[in-house]
Specification:
alpha/beta, 16 strands, Rossmann fold, six-stranded mixed beta sheet, six-stranded parallel beta sheet, homodimer
């Protein structure tokens, strides 16, 4: 058991849910410290009935801290994580900054919990769109070895934080009122629109968000031979990322087998009855911790072994806060059994 | 030149744009007749400055008609088209009912204009999501022979007619007002939501909308060997269908070559500059007749020759009204040159 837990970025879209998860999952700690940038310092937040004043994220803040759960922008993470580790804390980091560092395990507890053993003070939690995808891919990979993934995403505005949701709401209301919406968080007005760009160009016309689906997937699944063709699109939905996924496997796989594999896998709820109009949708997954899978069907275009499916998950929960708290739980178990 | 043109379903979402297109494209006719179901009979509509009273769609209505452009539900088309043809008219039909009939040409003028020569009184216009896709696929197929297509759609609510758009608007306003939205046109509330079902189950877990992307594509491109894996999703956008498309070709194809082929093809506008944040979006394509293509990139997952791209088009225009009027223009040319 850790004595002092620090949550960094507690007032953000993900940080708020981290605090909720500490309550709902009854995460054990003796003392909770909340750290944020100057803007939030002095604010009071109530967690598990205790009112806590937010302190400044600065060198020295981690001297008495054992474990950190951090949800901050990449540049903030790049700066504070080294001194947090230096000061003796173990950091579960949700930013993208450390994910591909070879010395940093990138963990989805349902997929590669064992990788946590190698950590050197930093454990990274993957990007939201990657996390839900690898949870769904893992049982198929284990049974039939995935060779290739083609994925098109339908990503919610909360992936860009609270500001993203506010912008969707105001942008939408403007359109309904016959006015011209503006944009600041997103490249263009998102109300009743789609934006086929998340992040900036990273590799051969693919965006940074798209390449996370390539690189992070390989690292988590521990298989650099998995080929991924990603398309990442922002859609006018507040919470819940959706993904249209096609997988090609080495061994043959049937729809029935895929459905059974999904159904038996941890962290997956199968909602799959087209005739009964049952399939995952953002509105049903908002506030849930699982990854939801449906529309499971044979790839009718392939020469080989292929399965197509539809996958939805709350991007603030399994895509971020829930996965980070699960990593912290894993750390506790390893401390407990050490 | 045809003497009498009839437009069937003139008060619907697509029918209204057919009438607009007759004006903008200065489609020649001596007399225009508007036909609709009982509900609309007697309404007056102004086209090219002439006020026309809507008449009842019933046997006998086509006795004096040469050419028909019809936008009606499938069941209405199934009933009236036979007697329209019997009464001597040639029908350009936008419903799904006749599309796969072997005696009915299914035409996208940029792709297979020559097929119109075989018509026996009925010419079908494809489904909205198919039309924009085949316009984009045609130049690639001609140059490099397409073997396989993986497509995920992001389809606007106007695909379900005016009622679809009204439902999106009311559903969205309800959510903004903190109330619970209802649904009638769609299976579930569509405001800030996605619905991964368009149509009903048709084949092995694929919906009717999805299978149109398989069957219609093969028929229009005249190649039954083209394999398609489709996923069709309704999104909270009023106008403009978007598609994330991956093609695999027989011959090698480079990004530069694909961009050139798209750029030289009729009916396509290339908007492709990720660094400059230029790509097709529904809000920019609303009210335009072209098919817009961007995010053109190499398939980084394939062993073979693959190109991924993003394609948007106004589903009421090229996806429906514009294509039908273009077919009518083709018919006129063939009459003129006969």
């Amino acid at each position: 058991m850790h004595d002092t837990l620090a949550v960094v970025g507690a007032t953000g879209a993900v940080g708020r849910i981290v605090l909720q998860q500490l309550e709902t999952r009854d995460f054990p700690y003796k003392r909770l410290k909340l750290l944020a940038s100057e803007r939030s310092v002095g604010q009071e937040v109530t967690v598990k009935g205790e009112t806590i004043k937010i302190e400044l994220l600065a060198p020295g803040a981690f001297k008495d801290v054992d474990l950190v759960i951090a949800s901050t922008p990449d540049e903030v993470s790049a700066e504070f994580v080294p001194y947090a580790v230096e000061e003796g804390a173990v950091v579960v980091d949700e930013s993208a900054f450390w994910r591909m560092d070879p010395s940093v395990p990138l963990i989805v507890p349902e997929v590669n919990p064992e990788a946590i053993a190698d950590h050197k003070g930093i454990i990274a939690s993957p990007n939201c769109s990657t996390t839900q995808m690898v949870v769904a891919l893992a049982p198929l990979h284990k049974a039939c070895k995935i060779k290739r993934v083609v994925v098109s995403t339908y990503q919610a505005t909360s992936g860009a934080g609270l500001a993203g949701n506010v912008e969707l709401m105001t942008s939408t209301q403007k359109v309904l009122d016959g006015e011209t919406p503006a944009s600041k968080t997103f490249q263009y007005p998102i109300g009743f629109n789609l934006i086929p760009q998340i992040g900036s160009e990273k590799f051969e016309g693919y965006t940074s968000e798209e390449m996370k689906l390539v690189y992070e997937t390989r690292k988590i699944m521990g298989d650099d031979n998995i080929q991924v063709c990603p398309t990442a699109v922002r859609v006018p939905v507040t919470i819940g990322h959706s993904e249209s996924i096609l997988v090609e496997t080495e061994q043959p796989i049937s729809v029935e087998q895929a459905r059974e594999l999904f159904g038996a896998a941890p962290g997956i709820t199968v909602v799959d009855d087209l005739q009964g109009q049952r399939y995952p949708m953002p509105r049903d997954c908002d506030g849930k911790d699982d990854v939801f899978v449906g529309r499971i069907r044979r790839d009718i275009s392939g020469q080989g072994n292929g399965i197509a499916f539809w996958c939805v998950s709350d991007n603030l929960r399994k895509g971020a806060a829930t996965n980070a708290v699960q990593i912290a739980e894993l750390l506790q178990q390893s401390v407990a059994t050490a």
